[in-house]
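stage 2 :: seqdesign
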């Protein structure tokens, strides 16, 4: 970065001195001065980029030569151990990625299965005139279709028995039922005693 700034500064100074000498010979317009400065800046930038690329290539070559030197100093067994260690690390990394991917697929598969079972349960509950609210779905939706159907059948049986028991044990309030007949008898019997 400093090299780039130094190169740019030198070229700007050179341009400024050229402008001054030309100014003595001929007057330049501001546009021409700006154009000259822009040209010199772009040349300096290109030169700095080339130098940077060269430095990076040199560093890369130096690194590779050091790595080769280290490997050459290692014996055949050590080199094999080094390569084996590197391969084991790569295998471990790939195994972790594979496990994560399998877990994601399993989770998605489970979610899809639950959604499908929930849809089927809603259909079966509607056919049997049972409520299809979240509480009911939580009770009847199981891990597979067979268990879900069994839970719906059990719930249907339970609610059917409850409805029958309720219908037998408590008469409707609006019908008058037995209480009304008993009142009539009391009134009639009360009349006879007078």
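stage 2 :: out
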């Amino acid at each position: 970065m400093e090299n780039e700034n130094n190169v740019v500064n030198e070229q700007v100074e050179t341009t400024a001195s050229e402008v001054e000498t030309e100014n003595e010979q001929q007057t330049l317009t501001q546009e021409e001065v700006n154009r000259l400065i822009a040209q010199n800046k772009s040349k300096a930038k290109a030169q700095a980029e080339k130098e940077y690329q060269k430095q990076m290539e040199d560093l890369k070559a130096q690194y590779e030569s050091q790595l080769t030197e280290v490997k050459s100093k290692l014996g055949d067994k050590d080199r094999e151990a080094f390569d084996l260690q590197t391969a084991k690390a790569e295998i471990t990394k790939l195994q972790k990625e594979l496990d994560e991917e399998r877990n994601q697929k399993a989770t998605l598969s489970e979610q899809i299965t639950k959604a499908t079972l929930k849809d089927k349960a809603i259909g079966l509950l509607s056919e049997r005139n049972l409520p299809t609210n979240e509480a009911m779905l939580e009770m009847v939706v199981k891990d597979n279709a067979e268990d879900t159907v069994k839970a719906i059948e059990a719930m249907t049986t339970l609610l059917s028995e409850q409805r029958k028991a309720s219908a037998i044990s408590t008469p409707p309030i609006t019908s008058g039922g037995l209480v009304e007949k008993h009142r009539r008898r009391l009134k009639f019997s009360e009349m006879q005693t007078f």
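stage 3 :: structure notes
- The chain is about 85% helix and 0% strand.
- The first helix runs from residue 2 to 25.
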